[in-house]
Amino acid sequence: MTLNTGRFTASQDSGVVVFIIGTRINHLLRINQWLPVITAFPAMVKELEQTPSLGYLGSETFITGKTILSVQYWESSGALLKYAKVQQHLKAWRTFNQRIRKSDSVGLYHETHIIRPDESEALYINMPDFGLGSAKGVQAVTSKTQTARQRLKRDQTEDSDEAMVNE
User: Fold this and answer.
1) Could you tell me if residue 58 is left (phi over 0), alpha (psi between -120 and 50 degrees) or otherwise beta?
2) For residue range 82-94, what is the model confidence (pLDDT) as tens digits?
3) Distance of CA 131 to the CA centre of its chain
4) What share of the chain is helix, strand, coil (3-state, %, to 5)?
5) Predicted pLDDT of residue 87
6) How far apart are the first and last CA of the chain?
7) Would you tell me which CATH number, out of the four given (3.40.50.12780, 3.30.70.100, 3.40.140.10, 3.30.450.40), belongs to the domain 16-115?
């Protein structure tokens, strides 16, 4: 990974869909129930990475304790929903549903967040490409993107910001 030395922000030329998906191992000793769920995930990510036309932009995956979390970036909610019907995902989803009916040994969660252009901000200091910056590209911070407020491109005054915080 190449280190981007200095201050960078994510390109914000278009919106993005942030899809958070993960699994939680509820009963560690029931490996036969949760291992197939966990091993299906890398195959789907590989499929997405090899097929840019599906609208997947990239992801970051984190493992903490019994939980695996993947933060994915998509071009649109339409692309994400369309992928849900693709063979690789559909097969994994059916397998998961069959297993979950038999046991509570593994859990699954996901959240979908639609972010319009200029409604998010990102800052990376001395980091390799990461997160939204990895998915959308990074650009050096300039005098026009120096602060979080500028990166968010808010039209609100400080008084209205304070009012929102106090509500």
Assistant:
1) left
2) 988 876 677 777 7
3) 7
4) 40, 30, 30
5) 66
6) 43
7) 3.30.70.100
